[in-house]
Design goal:
It is a single chain. It is built from 5 helices and 2 strands. By secondary structure, the chain is mainly alpha-helical.
Length: 102
């Protein structure tokens, strides 16, 4: 694997160039597209009540898991990336049942 590339779980390489299209400034567009797909899947019907809380619960755990993954389990770095206090992050890790691998 060459410098500036990351090996993905399926064996493919992801170059830093291709990552630039997935940066934070595109996050709102990605979320908007996924939410559009979610609503479209309901085929004109309304989703069940409580969508706001459901979306936040569904996003929080993988967000923390992925942040811990890229920081190799370093909770101080993960907390900084997430903009959380380290103790708040630890509380969320416990509440969400996230396994921290170092």
């Amino acid at each position: 694997m060459s410098v500036g590339k990351t090996l993905l779980s399926d064996g493919d390489e992801l170059s830093l160039r291709s990552v630039s299209s997935l940066t934070a400034e595109n996050l709102p567009q990605m979320v908007n597209r996924l939410l559009g797909e979610y609503f479209a899947a309901h085929r004109g019907m309304m989703p069940p009540a409580g969508l706001y809380g459901r979306v936040l619960r569904e996003v929080e755990k993988p967000l923390i898991e992925q942040t811990l993954l890229i920081t190799s389990g370093n909770q101080i770095k993960a907390a900084a990336i997430l903009g959380l206090n380290r103790n708040t992050l630890r509380k969320k890790i416990n509440e969400l049942g996230i396994e921290v691998k170092k």
